[in-house]
């Protein structure tokens, strides 16, 4: 677990995975946001890496987008 008071480096706080659009939205502890768009092979590789790298004890939330999610819905930054 990270100590929020002493951490000077940004770290990953949330990953939003959208299998339908094959994208990953990454949110950092300092409010940064990055979207990674993938082809089928890239998506599978990054998804596997994400599952292996992030465990329940990390301070990172992993969210899967509902397939019925409306494309116009915006996520608020962390």
How would you portray this structure in words?
It is a single chain. This protein has 78 residues and is an alpha+beta fold. Helices cover 18% and strands 28% of the residues. The protein contains 1 helix and 4 strands, in the order E-E-E-H-E. It has a 4-stranded mixed β-sheet with strand order 3-2-1-4, with no helix packed on it. The longest helix is centred in the middle third of the chain and has 14 residues. The radius of gyration is 13 Å and the shape is globular. The model has no long low-confidence stretch (mean pLDDT 84).
Question: What's this, in brief?
Answer:
The protein is an alpha+beta fold and 78 residues long. It has one helix spanning 40-53; strands spanning 12-18, 23-28, 33-37, 61-64.
Question: Main attributes?
Answer:
alpha+beta, 1 helix, 78 residues, four-stranded mixed beta sheet, single chain
What's the arrangement of secondary structure elements?
Elements: E1 12-18, E2 23-28, E3 33-37, H1 40-53, E4 61-64
User: Strand sequence of the main sheet, in spatial order?
Assistant: 3-2-1-4
β content, as a range?
A: 25-35%
Poorly predicted ranges (pLDDT <50, ≥5 residues)? none
Label the structural class: alpha+beta
Count of alpha/pi helices: 1
* Record field, number of beta strands: 4
- H/E series, N to C? EEEHE
The major sheet is characterized as: 4 strands, mixed
Anisotropy-based shape: globular
Percent range for helical residues? 10-25%
Distance between the termini: 18 Å
Mean pLDDT: 84
Radius of gyration from the CA trace?
A: 13 Å
